[in-house]
Amino acid sequence: MNARTFVGWICSVLGALGFAGSGLTKLIAPAMMMPIFSLFGLPAWTIPTIGICEIVGVILVFTALRRYGATILGVVAVGAFVEHATHGQLAMGAAPVLLGALVAAGVVLRTRQLAMSPAATAV
Description:
The protein is an all-alpha fold.
């Protein structure tokens, strides 16, 4: 494993841990999230829905479908940022963007390494 791949894995794991924690919180203790979602005017059913999206995205980041996982997590991150920013919580919106950027960087670093390998170009 070269340095690029190693850094990609570190970024992927750190970003995924943040999203996994957020997703599990939404699934295990949705009542904790209800005040925030109510403030944003979102119905209660969006809490587990977003939690499921986060968990599915995290799982996909560690498979061959990692680009789809990063896309799902990116959409969740942008949505969270927009909701926080439009409700005067700009600083709170920075965390999902940072996590999304970590996951995206990790996926790009890991995927480019695979695409540039001789085995990938020999097909």
